[in-house]
Amino acid sequence: MDMLHIFLSAGLWAAVLRIATPLIFGTLGALLSERAGVLHLGIEGIMTFGAMIGWLTVYHGGDLWIGLLAAAIGGGIFGLLHALLTVPLGLSQHVTGLGITLFASSLAYFIFRLSVPVSGTPPTIVAFQVLHIPVLSALPFLGEAVFSQTAPTYLAVLLALGLAYVLARTPLGLAIRIVGENPHAAEAQGLDPIAIRIGAVVAGSALMGMGGAFLTLSAFNSFFPTMVQGRGWVSIALVVFASWRPERALFGALLFALFDAYQLRLQQVVGKAVPYQLFLMIPYLMSIAALLVMARRARVPQALMQPFRRGER
Amino acid sequence: MRLERRSDTPLALTLAAPVGAVALSLALAGILIAIAGAPVFEAYHRLFIGAFGSRLAITETLTRATPLILTGLAAAVAFRARLWNIGAEGQFYVGALAAAALGSEAGLQLPGYALIPALLVAAAVAGAVLLLVPLLMRLRFGVDEVVTTLLLNFVILLFVSMMIEGPLKDPLAFGWPQSVPVVADAMLPRLVARSRLHIGLPIGVGLAMLTWFVQSRTTFGLESRAAGLNPRAAAFAGVSLTRILISVACLSGGVAGLAGAIEVMGVKGYVTTDLSPSFGYTGIVVAMLAGLHPIGVIVTALFVATMFVGADGMSRALGVPSFIADVIVSLSLLTMLVALLLSNYRIRR
To answer: What is the CATH number of domain A5-294?
Structure first.
């Protein structure tokens, strides 16, 4: 197998979708929040908490979907905290977000350590299994490459398309976008910028929680600290790369995952000639590169990071 | 009901903010301790004994506070000029790596009195350069430095891992991934016999005082504060924002790099990928609790170190997971933000 042959293996493309899934959830969540004008650096911690609470729910006998729901609710609660501090109180979105990340992840570790005794091998659950779709999964190549995923992956793709539609074509999406561009104009239109911002942050945080839960309920079957590995920060970079548009976020997440899946296989080809850490750096370096290229070109929501206070300009 | 900015905040209120924030987060964490099935007051008593109950405990707490003073200072200096340096963790590691590489047998062949200052300077330069990269990206390309500094932390940790499994690997460590040790001459002198406490502590305290002096008594200090408070007005008054931000980045990244070198040369003697139990990120909490005041950083670093060292004792005695310290510290960042708001604004009906 040489460097180009890798692209012809269906396994690569199946891995791309799998690796992209938590990034799709995370990017959509951060995007929704930022579109309403709130930067959400709580994402890394919320993904960690979602991974933990989703796993713990299933470990204690819950259904896998209940686990995913628990992660969404847990994410939403931290999102509500972030929203209350940054929207009505107008606190620094940077520092509050980092505080949420530190708080959510340390609470996740605390609850995990409290509920699961220390042991050599982490306990496991039965994770989501591949969902076979009639006809499509039986297609040659495509069946294996695209239609052999677990249910949350399909859900992530559908959510990306759904969010793209809602933001671009519905009154709700228009309301969210106006609030992110000019909250005073939104208020003049009879909208409530504070309520809309809180709603967008909470909904976005629920998506982040689900992205974390995908790691423990589908990609792996156990929880361990630091497993999110900066996926939240990569998602924040992907939002810029996607110019705050959900359909581009889907593309961006897939592109990143392609590089990640490719480097994993490339490692096996080049063997020990190149230190494996260089390959592991690629997603982070790519995120930085994406920011460099897109930062000036992307259309930033005009009121991003600007707190809204009634009657103040 | 609305918020109205106070024209000036009384000193009592400035001091009450962190105290109130810490009290509230201890109370909230008390709920978690109760859920964990431990008596809350005894737990906090154990925490206090764990941090201050013996000579060893006190020196351990001070040893733990040393890198936190420096990373806290790194965040305080940067945040005051609205340079969002979240990369202190990475800067800590490049400083540590520089000290280990240049301080080993194969490194600089210098006598002790010259070796230690040379290593500290090298580490500060390494940390500063690492922060200049994202700063230049912000100035040239308009890239928000929060995300780039965060992402660089992961890159640097992988780089450290690559170095200590590759060129800097200690061949005598039984295959364990750790760097070559620094020579005995490069180790910082002990402050107290039969303890791990080293002269890094007075270095940190001295730097905090120096920073306070620079910020409050020099033109550069005034300009950097002005740049943070209102960049446009500062620029209009003839302050070069680029120059100020570059100086602030050198100071902030340099101090964080110094923290890494001091941890290697004062405590461990070599670099591993778990050298820092997130000193860099915790430094942000230290700085915020101190209201970004350099002298305050010394006090809040001591508080955070108390929580971490004390929680280990509490955990051993009562079985409460020691992650409770992380919960208390992170909660106090959030409560501090609210307390700062309440002390800077008054509520009007």
So the answer is: 1.10.3470
